[in-house]
Specification:
It is built from 10 helices and 12 strands. The mean pLDDT is 96. It is 41% helix and 18% strand. The longest helix is centred in the N-terminal third of the chain and has 22 residues. The chain has a single domain, classed as Rossmann fold. Helix 1 links the parallel strand 1 and strand 2. The strands form 4 sheets. The protein has a 6-stranded parallel sheet, sandwiched between helices. A two-stranded parallel sheet has the order 6-9. The protein is α/β, with parallel strands linked by helices. It is globular, with a radius of gyration of 19 Å. Bound molecules: NADP nicotinamide-adenine-dinucleotide phosphate. NADP nicotinamide-adenine-dinucleotide phosphate binds next to helix 1, helix 4 and strand 4.
Length: 285
């Protein structure tokens, strides 16, 4: 039996892990969210680790409100940087492997080919800055970690672009969506499956990894695919970022190179269009 702690247990990714893990028999998983375990409190984290025995911690807890973070740096840093550091310290002291989820927002988006794990980081907003500092805190305090950077997560859980588009398609007749930000929509269930594969592999090839679905899209392409799959009649128009200003600056290009995770863990990654079809079907099950 492999004992696992999942933090941020009420969040989107944690729910996707729970869906998959509940179908396996070799994993014993404890899910905690803010109320059971506030990762920003080192005393609480240490006490929780003393009361329980884990082989892995999957850190799904994060301050993910990208725009709010611009005016709330203290709280974003508390969760994304201090929280990650606290878990790294507790994992080191208790011989636990940490799987930490990070983001494409650690990059500035000025590259024109897929970002690999060695590429220079240069976050453009508070969310990305605090997530990068969280990565650095883990690297400085722990040897046994997998940091998995991902992007554009959606699923049938939580608030995400897929669910927003489905809602808007019922309320509106027309919609404009940004066409000049390029990345890869990623089904959080595919990422969850990859995390479980990393755990089941018992690999010690620690380090930073990139994971997203395959393929490339703009937010406009993503919205169009959702409406096509849903046979929605909504009229969709492309707009540029400058016509849809947001408090946080987002990378224009954040496609991730997944070669390392694919070869180290023998993973085949689905194309985003194929996963979207599955996600939409499950949305209505
Ligand atoms: N969503 C994306 O598009 C995306 C893209 C790239 C990377 N990521 C990364 O992927 C990971 C999972 O994202 P997600 O979409 O599952 O996020 P999510 O749905 O926002 O879940 C995060 C969870 O963490 C909880 N949390 C916040 N502060 C906490 C604390 N101090 N202690 C314990 N739990 C706390 C939140 O609780 P409350 O809701 O009560 O605050 C929430 O349940 C995050 O690390 C995120 O940075 C996400």
């Amino acid at each position: 039996m492999i004992n696992i702690l999942v933090t941020g247990g009420n969040g989107q990714l944690a729910k996707c892990i729970s869906d998959l893990e509940s179908k396996t028999s070799n994993l014993n998983v404890i899910y905690t969210d803010y109320l059971e375990l506030d990762i920003t409190n080192l005393e609480d984290v240490n006490a929780f680790y003393n009361r329980n025995t884990f082989d892995y911690c999957i850190n799904c807890a994060a301050y993910t409100a990208v725009d709010n973070a611009e005016n709330d740096e203290i709280n974003a840093a508390k969760v994304n940087e201090l929280g990650a550091k606290n878990l790294a310290i507790a994992c080191r002291n208790n011989n636990v492997i940490l799987i930490h989820i990070s983001t494409d927002f650690v990059f500035d988006g000025n590259k024109s080919s897929a970002y690999n794990e060695e590429d220079t980081t240069n976050p453009t907003g508070i969310y990305g800055i605090t997530k990068l500092k969280g990565e650095q805190a883990i690297i400085n305090h722990l040897e046994s970690y997998f940091i998995i950077r991902t992007a554009w997560l959606y699923s049938e859980h939580g608030n995400n672009f897929l669910k927003t588009m489905i809602r808007l398609s019922k309320d509106r007749t027309e919609l404009s969506v940004v066409v000049d930000q390029i990345g890869t929509p990623t089904y959080a269930t595919d990422l969850a499956a990859t995390i479980l594969k990393v755990i089941n592999s018992k690999s010690q090839e620690f380090g930073v990894y990139h994971y997203s679905n395959e393929g490339v899209a703009s937010w406009y392409d993503f919205a169009k695919a959702i409406f096509d799959e849903n046979k929605s009649q909504i009229s969709l128009s492309p707009i540029n970022t400058e016509d849809y200003p947001t408090p946080a600056k987002r990378p224009y290009f954040s496609v991730l190179d997944k070669s390392k995770i694919k070869s180290n863990f023998d993973i085949e990654i689905p194309h985003w269009r194929d996963s979207l079809r599955i996600a939409i079907k499950r949305q209505y099950e």
